[in-house]
Amino acid sequence: MEGETEIEVIHSWSAPRSLSTSLMYSFAQRDDMEVLDEPLYANFLRVTGLDRPYREELLSKLDSDGNKVVKEVIYGPGEKRYRYCKHIAKQRVPGLTTDLMKKGKHFILIRNPLHILPSFDKVVPPSFLELGLSGLVSVYTELCHMGQPPPIIDAEDLQKDAEVVLRGLCESLGIPFQKSMLKWESGPKPIDGIWAPWWYGSVHKSTCFTTTRLYPSPLPPQLYELLEQSLPFYNLLRRYAKRTLPFDKSSLPIPDLPVPANEKLLIWVGDELLPRDWAKVSVFDSVVQGGDAVWEGLRVYDGKIFKLNDHLDRLFDSAKALAFSNVPNRQEIKEAIFKTLISNGMFDNAHIRLTLTRGKKVTSGMSPAFNLYGCTLIVLAEWKPPVYDNSHGITLVTATTRRNSPNNLDSKIHHNNLINNILAKVEGNLAKADDAIMLDHDGFVSETNATNIFLVKRGRVLTPHADFCLPGITRTTVMDLVVKENFVLEERRISLSEFHTADEVWTTGTMGELTPVVMIDGRVTGNGEVGPVTRRLQKAYKELTSESGEPIPHNW
Q1: Looking at residue 444, what DSSP letter applies?
Q2: Residue 2 pLDDT more than 60?
Q3: pLDDT level of residue 250 (50, 70, 90 thresholds)
Q4: Which residue among 103, 260, 319, 556 sits deepest, i.e. has the most Cβ atoms within 10 Å of its Cβ?
Q5: Which residues are CB-contacts of 483 (< 8 A; sequence separation ≥ 6)?
């Protein structure tokens, strides 16, 4: 027919009540666009047999042969350059030609089901099928499989800043943005489907994308289970929306990870392994409510976990000191650790942050009497080389924040209440030092904010008593090595000036191993280089980690 040309089709996939009609009106304002409102709706009703108030009228006026609609209506010739097809995901029923997905350009519009459910039942009873979020995930998966991952936009972002979102969407679709997309006339439109009187009452009152209300409507209790079913599908798509179209101007840029391989981790939480972004604890968990948890740091060397049982002994002692109940046994914790490491393929150069919380509470509050679900176990394994410069050394400053006294909170309990240490670390960061020394209440050196500390003076090795510090596993290991290497070891109170005038200083900890210190409070340690005693003990420690540890089991 004269004037008709081959047209480029843009497919919008959404769920009901997701601003899809507003977005259709937006695209209809363009001078290069024609619009189709749910062209596959009649086919959907024919195939599913579902009832609607307008079913008979719809089936009598629109073609219900889906493949014919795809060929002649959706991809038929047109008079403008582009054709916008608004689709509801659930209308993509079996039997439709693959051309529907293979041809044209596609994008997905999502909306939080929490904002949809309260008003959904005005036309049809809400159900998982009617919400259609699983269908959107299916659309996304199929397009990705074809090598065409679609852009995803969120209705909330549209309401916050329509121009930014639409500009980004147009750029992703390879079409120019037109300012006319930001406004439309109120009232019914010639492009509306037959169902408009039942569904489009609110949008007919609109003239642009606006937030209709500041606060959401209450969620009817009977819809809570449906929300639980639907929200994971929305959250999954929302993650991809943030990656592909980061519209939120207020959001921080996605930071680079220190070790990029840690982007794809499996983390043990409770009784299961979860991907990194899904690994979360309940807001009712004691570790969130009050930092009420204990933890250990472990390292993996050449297929073995170093000092595993020593760390588990301390974990159980800490849990007992805090009167935890329903604590998992040693074998259960080991199995969780092994499963986490094996699933991540981690057999060397890995660090494990092992956390045991008092568990989830039945209601918020301080009392452990509310903890009726048992403890929560977290196994976070990361690819992580030693975190300090063990070849050239680090610098320390002395913090004004004092280390906890046993009168307040005994540091022999390896607990998660680390504000004391964090405040000291803040001081270290502000001073541009690697870490900060913490003194006890009498002014003697206790440890650093993260490690135990040693010094060498005239061939003698000294370390502070563990009265105000954690008696670290690495600390104990190095003390044994000091004796084995025939050095004199002395454990006593040590003043800060003794560290300022030491020949050598090093720190110890699982995360950093044995780390030389070359400057404290602006004073050069020794000659400013890693000393011979430090080097010798580093070598002995490396040999010990290579030859000992609990092997990670495997089935191959």
Answers
A1: B
A2: no
A3: low
A4: 319
A5: 489
Residues 171 and 540: their CA atoms lie apart, in Å, by 59
The CB-based long-range contact list for 303-306 (8 Å cut-off, 24+ gap) reads 303/347, 303/348, 303/551, 303/552, 304/548, 304/549, 304/550, 304/551, 304/552, 305/337, 305/341, 305/352, 305/549, 305/550, 305/552, 306/510, 306/545, 306/548, 306/549
Q: Is the dihedral of CA 481, 484, 487, 490 positive or negative?
A: positive
Tell me the residue type at 477: T
pLDDT higher than threshold 80 for residue 154: yes
Phi, psi of 188 (to 5 degrees): -60, 155
* For residue 246, pLDDT beyond 70: no
Residue 122 has a pLDDT of 67
User: Is residue 435 a contact partner of residue 507, using CB atoms and an 8 Å limit?
Assistant: yes
505: tokens are 């200083």
pLDDT value at residue 243? 58
Q: What is the pLDDT of residue 76?
A: 95
pLDDT at 247 over 90: no
Backbone φ and ψ of 490, nearest 5°: -130, 130
**419-467 pLDDT, tens per residue?**
999 999 999 999 999 999 999 999 999 999 999 999 999 999 999 999 9
**Distance (Å) of CA 142 to CA 388, 503, 538:** 45, 65, 54
Closest among 60, 70, 18 to 39, alpha carbons compared: 70
Distance CA 319, CA 120 (A): 48
Q: Computed over its alpha carbons, how large is the radius of gyration of the chain?
A: 32
- Position 126 confidence tier, pLDDT thresholds 50, 70, 90: confident
Closest to 111 measured CA to CA, from 250, 252, 216, 251: 216
* 519: number of Cβ within 10 Å: 17
Q: Please provide the DSSP assignment of 467-481 as one string.
A: TSS---HHHHHHHHH
pLDDT for 3 = 53
Query: 133-145 and 224-244 are packed helices; what angle lies between their axes, rounded to 10 degrees?
Result: 30
> What pTM was computed for the model?
0.87
| Predicted pLDDT at 216 | 80
Cα–Cα distance between 405 and 171 in angstroms, integer? 60
- Which residues is 456 bridged to in the sheet? 461, 504
The Cα 209–Cα 476 span in angstroms is 64
Please name the helix (run of DSSP H) or strand (run of DSSP E) that holds residue 192, with its range, or none: none
Contact 403/411 with Cβ under 8 angstroms? Answer: yes
The one-letter code for the residue type at 459 is: G
